[in-house]
């Protein structure tokens, strides 16, 4: 394993239980508060959401008559219950808890894709002096992740499985503080390895001398879908003009993120208060624009079924594409 050395995210009651365990102010000047122009959006602090932070910083939401308040969260699973209660309008993060919620009876809509995995954007990190030198060395070890049954556990499970190692041979430990605190926790010995996303991969190297042990963009999870923008179907149906305005702004933000690295560095640096030493060297994912790619999200649902994140009772619904299909389409 090559190490990268540095210099320089059924029943509604069941869904709520799972979630508990786990800005700016015009194309559409007619929008008003009564029609949902004030949006509360929960987001992970990762480079995968650069399109969102660019849209905020560049006034793209304001141009659509929207006032968006972004609230940072440690993982997507932490916000599902709040979204079902109506306390959050849109989430930006992993699809996994929403696919689980959809299977359990909730109704969410994927508004747009945010990011697709690329080299060094989601990785396993160890301390510089770690004795872990191969994937096999992870057996029996503790791995810090930002969320329970998250994209991190899925990607790592795929890595282990590809090496013939059952995922239950490692111990996943969830850190409720999420990516911003995890490099320090790794340094302090909380776990043997940590799952990190950019820009915190680069920050781990810059501030703590930690190193990438395994890139998770490989094998079965090569070019894997990572994050998206989701709302309840009830919210989309209640505020269709707002949803459409949000989508227009995000599409423009995604296009800028995909073509203007300087804009990404500026937006992520400002959002997470990070030094240029980290943002200037961070690896970037792909930032999809346009209609949601059903085939891409289907890969995730099938992997979730494979690694037990979805019960086998949903096998037919997943394999026939009905589960993912119910999350994509007009509101």
Task: Annotate the secondary structure layout.
Layout: H1 12-21, E1 38-43, H2 50-57, H3 60-63, E2 67-72, H4 80-85, E3 90-94, H5 96-103, E4 108-116, E5 122-126, E6 142-145, H6 151-162, E7 171-174, H7 182-187, E8 193-197, H8 200-208, E9 211-215, E10 225-232, H9 233-238, H10 240-259, H11 261-272, H12 276-279, H13 294-306, H14 315-319, H15 322-325
Parallel strand pairs: 1-2, 1-3, 6-7, 6-8
Antiparallel strand pairs: 3-10, 4-10, 5-8, 5-9
Walk me through this protein's architecture.
This protein is an alpha/beta fold and 331 residues long. The protein folds into two domains: 12-116 and 225-325, Periplasmic binding protein-like II (D-Maltodextrin-Binding Protein, domain 2, 3-Layer(aba) Sandwich); 122-221, D-Maltodextrin-Binding Protein, domain 2 (3-Layer(aba) Sandwich), CATH 3.40.190.10. It contains 15 helices and ten strands. The strands form two sheets. It has a five-stranded mixed sheet with strand order 2-1-3-10-4. A five-stranded mixed sheet has the order 7-6-8-5-9, with helices on both faces. Strand 6, helix 6 (151-162) and strand 7 (171-174) form a beta-alpha-beta unit. The N and C termini lie far apart (45 Å). The model is unreliable at 1-35 (pLDDT under 50).
């Amino acid at each position: 394993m090559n190490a990268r050395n540095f210099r320089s995210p059924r029943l509604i009651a069941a869904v709520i239980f799972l979630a508990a365990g786990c800005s700016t102010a015009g194309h559409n000047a007619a929008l008003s508060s009564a029609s949902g122009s004030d949006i509360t959006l929960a987001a992970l602090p990762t480079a995968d959401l650069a399109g969102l932070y660019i849209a905020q910083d560049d006034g793209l939401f304001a141009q659509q008559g929207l006032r968006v308040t972004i609230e940072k969260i440690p993982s997507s699973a932490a916000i599902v219950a709040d979204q079902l209660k109506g306390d959050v309008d849109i989430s930006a993060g992993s699809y996994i808890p929403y696919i689980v919620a959809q299977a359990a009876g909730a109704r969410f809509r994927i508004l747009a894709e945010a990011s697709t995995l690329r080299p060094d954007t989601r990785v396993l990190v160890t301390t510089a002096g770690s004795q872990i030198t191969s994937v096999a060395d992870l057996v029996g070890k503790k791995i810090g992740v930002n969320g329970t049954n998250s994209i991190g556990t899925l990607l790592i499970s795929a890595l282990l499985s590809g090496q013939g190692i059952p995922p239950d041979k490692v111990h996943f430990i969830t850190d409720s503080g999420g990516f911003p605190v995890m490099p320090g926790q790794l340094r302090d010995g909380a776990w043997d390895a940590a799952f990190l996303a950019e820009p915190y991969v680069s920050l781990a190297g810059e501030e703590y001398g930690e190193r990438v042990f395994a890139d998770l963009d490989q094998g079965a999870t090569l070019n894997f879908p990572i994050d998206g923008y989701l709302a309840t179907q009830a919210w989309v149906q209640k505020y269709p003009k707002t949803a459409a305005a949000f989508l227009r702004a995000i599409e423009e933000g995604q296009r800028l993120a995909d073509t203007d690295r300087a804009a990404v560095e500026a937006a992520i640096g400002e959002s997470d208060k990070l030094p240029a030493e980290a943002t200037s060297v961070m690896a970037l994912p792909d930032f999809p624009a346009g209609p949601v790619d059903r085939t891409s999200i289907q890969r995730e649902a099938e992997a979730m079924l494979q690694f037990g994140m979805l019960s086998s009772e949903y096998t037919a619904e997943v394999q026939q594409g009905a589960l993912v299909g119910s999350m994509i389409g007009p509101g």
